[in-house]
Amino acid sequence: MGNFNDKAELLADRLDLPADALAGSTKLSLCGRRRLMIENHHGIISYGENTTEVDCGGVKLIIRGDGLSIGAMDKKDMLICGRIISLEFE
Amino acid sequence: MNKLYDLARGTVRLEVTGAQPESLLNFCAENGIEFWDTSPCDDFAIYMTIHASDYPKLSGQNGKNGCEVKHIASRGGKNISRAIKRRWIFCIFCGLCIKLLAISSMFLWSIDIEGNENISDGEIMRALSECGVEYGAFWPALSSEEVRSSILMKMPDIAWMSLNVSNSRAVVVIHERIEKPEIINEKAPCDIIAEKSGIITKLSVLEGKQLVYAGDTVVKGDILVSALMDSETGDDRYVRAMAIVEADTWYEISAQTPLYEERKVEKTGKDSDFSVVIGKKRINFYSDSRNNSISCDKINKLRYISLGKAFVLPIGFASQRTAEYETETAQIDVNEAAERLKSTLIKELERRIDGGEIVSANFSVSQDDALLTVTLRAQCRENIAKEAAYD
Lengths: 90, 391
Prior knowledge:
Number of domains of chain A: 1
Mean pLDDT of chain A: 84
CATH class of the largest domain in chain B: Alpha Beta
CATH architecture of chain A: Sandwich
Radius of gyration of chain B: 40 Å
Strand content of chain B: over 45%
Oligomer: heterodimer
Low-confidence stretches of chain A: none
Distance between the termini of chain A: 15 Å
CATH superfamily of the largest domain in chain B: ACT domain
CATH architecture of the largest domain in chain B: 2-Layer Sandwich
Distance between the termini of chain B: 84 Å
Order of helices and strands of chain A: HHEEEEEE
Number of strands of chain B: 23
Radius of gyration of chain A: 13 Å
CATH topology of the largest domain in chain B: Alpha-Beta Plaits
Number of strands of chain A: 6
Largest sheet of chain A: 6 strands, antiparallel
Structural class of chain A: alpha+beta
Strand content of chain A: over 45%
Largest interface: A-B, 15 and 16 residues
Helix content of chain A: 10-25%
CATH topology of chain A: Immunoglobulin-like
Mean pLDDT of chain B: 86
Structural class of chain B: alpha+beta
Number of domains of chain B: 4
Strand order of the largest sheet of chain A: 1-2-6-5-4-3
CATH class of chain A: Mainly Beta
Largest sheet of chain B: 5 strands, antiparallel
């Protein structure tokens, strides 16, 4: 799956198209350092005030910060609020 | 607004415990169950809030995926309807109050008058009352334009007025008529005479024949500039004399105040009487409102129950406080009284010189057995020119 996504993203790059539209890649929008919007997520893996892990389809996004909370969440989108220190992909 | 909506729908606070409580969050997201206020309690527990209608769906997940869903608290929704059923008398009372409020807002219970300076509130209220604008009037039947027309007809001193009614409060805005200035016939001949006695310091003649010069002493009524002008080529001409005549003038003004005054000393035991006012009716909770004592102050206060300034209810409370007092003679503070008289004298002098300049001023204070006298002696510089019809 991850391999397919990588290829799709590569193809989107070549065709100069948005990757989230073509390959359904996860799109992250960081507004300042207190709000992170995650589009096209695949669910939450772990949830804590200092570390929250989100499944982004073949890749795990680790959000580190203070007082993290889920502001809103539905099937595709998720809003993480709190003081964000770092974003890591694993 | 969202909170009110949530309260109306009803909310349930849950505690999700298990090896992976996050799986329940994913379940909610996938099934369109709205949740908020999520906070991790520890590594294996999460608090969350959902709508009460979604609770059956989520409680079905209890025990699945190793998660346990525990109900902590409920708010709003059915709880409110249950509370209403239990307190139905209170709810009926609230409903009646709202109805009464709605009905009473159709009547005027507060009339405010703004913008009047010379015409008293009482005169305007009487005129308004004759036009139907009074306490307890049904305001939807009032026509602002009709009221305005009849008030303007009744009171010629009012140039314009507006009547704004909002709920049970009427605001009447008054614009008083400005007096028409006196029309001066600029062709009529007139002299310039001295309005006050003094020594002329400066004289600027714009029209007319100059009769006095700087340094001359004039007394009140002397002609300074004449309307009759000589002509070398023809007959004499009559003009409207115009001039600015600055002169040094002297004033001596005295003011007196008694050294002893009567002061009120309140006796103990003030009586307070209460009454309830409903519309125009008054229910007294006391039997006798007459003054039994000769020396007493009676202070009446009336306050209608209102919600802000918008809603005024026709129900109010009136309080009447009667405080008996005795009078005693006491000496006034001489220094304070002298200062007060000095400032009064300066104000009086400024009024008399009308824009002139006070060159020098000194005060003398004297007192006899009963009176304190302050005398102001001042030298001023002012325009003493005054127009007078030519004889």
